[in-house]
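re: ur question from earlier - yeah i can do the single chain one, its not a big deal. heres the input i used so u can compare w yours
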Amino acid sequence: MAAQELKPGTWKIDTAHSIVGFSVRHMMVSKVRGRFEKFDATLTVPEDTTKASVEATIDSASINTDNTDRDAHIRSADFFSVEENPEFKFRSTGIEAKGEDFVLKGELTIKGNTHPIELDLEFNGSTLDPYGLDRAGFSASTTISRKKFGVDIEMPMDGGGVVVGDKITIEIDAEFTRQA
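and the output i got, formated as tokens:
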């Protein structure tokens, strides 16, 4: 991350130009993709950009897989228990260079279970928009075990395998604006 490209300050996520998406294996033969409609994140950038940090929350009830019945089931006690667990949380703990990209280390909390994760992070650059706002973009991805985070429903299939896979791929495209 080039220091001259990411100005110090507090940056807020622009949710209209960002997405928090995921995919999971379904019936062992395909993938279901989805996204969360409500989330928030703050990026804090000190003078030394290698010390930047991010905190984020996701409204667990805002899941959208483009299937109303499936989304209702995922919100239930079988999966997210959204009434008892209204938010997922992420807090970064460090950042390391990895070639031209980075690894963002942090702690993810889902259903009260907090575990360290690492996201492959790409800094997509920054710009001054026509309205005078500094904007910066990032892409990040990781794979987690849903069972490790307490989303441990088992739905075995008669012929072997499971209805819902354990590995969840998370993909984030985030655009931030620097606050005045």
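The first helix runs from residue 68 to 75. not sure if urs matches, ping me
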